[in-house]
Amino acid sequence: MSLRVIAGSAKGRKLKSVPGDTTRPVMDRVKEALFNILAGDVIDSNWWDLFAGTGAIGIEALSRGAKFVRFTDLNRLPIETIKENVSHCKFDSQSEIKRGDAFNLLAGHVDKNFEYIYIAPPQYEEMWLKALQLVDENINWLTEDGSAIVQIDPTEYQEVPLQNLVEAEQRKYGSTLLIFYDRK
């Protein structure tokens, strides 16, 4: 499957995949749907692409007018792939690429506020639950009107007890479920 930027200033640019099978690239129709839902809210927004993989979501956000994206991933290969993809699309000055454990980063000192935190971790390990709960506990990662967006397989879904976030909506696209959690 070839990855590409589907709209905006970097439209049509091809993105490299991470070698091996450690990441699962988001399908174009899911990416398209996500950004159609967010529409104009992407402009001038700050994003944290938490389990960034190829960086495709964050790069798409930048291409559509986001101001800044922090890309994080635990492993070296995705980080190298993200760096190449960000440079290829000429978004270096609007990006921060950090290698680290998502849970440690979320539990750490809040150094920036984001309108969107995108959570698409490895599947079937309940990592999305832990990440979402950490965002909920450290709510100042999100701006006042910020949202956490979870991308999982629909079979992984379960209700999560949250203090500061509320589930706003779900959208299902084949074997992909997007769940939007808004700050209360």
Q: Count the helices. How many? A: 5
Q: Sheet bearing the most strands, described?
A: 7 strands, mixed
Tell me the overall shape: globular
Distance between the termini: 38 Å
For the structure shown, list the relevant keywords.
alpha/beta; Rossmann fold; seven-stranded mixed beta sheet; two-stranded antiparallel sheet; 5 helices; 9 strands; 27% helix
Walk me through the structure:
The chain is globular. Helix content is 27%, strand content 29%. It has one domain: Vaccinia Virus protein VP39 (Rossmann fold, 3-Layer(aba) Sandwich), CATH 3.40.50.150. The termini are far apart. Strand 4, helix 3 and strand 5 form a beta-alpha-beta unit. It is built from five helices and nine strands. The chain has a seven-stranded mixed β-sheet with strand order 5-4-3-6-7-9-8, sandwiched between helices. Strands 1-2 form a two-stranded antiparallel ribbon. By secondary structure, the chain is of the alpha/beta class.
What's the structural blueprint in terms of helices and strands?
Elements: E1 3-4, E2 14-15, H1 28-38, E3 46-49, H2 56-63, E4 68-73, H3 76-88, E5 95-99, H4 102-107, E6 114-119, H5 127-137, E7 142-152, E8 165-173, E9 176-183
Can you describe this structure in just a few lines?
With 184 residues, the chain is α/β, with parallel strands linked by helices.
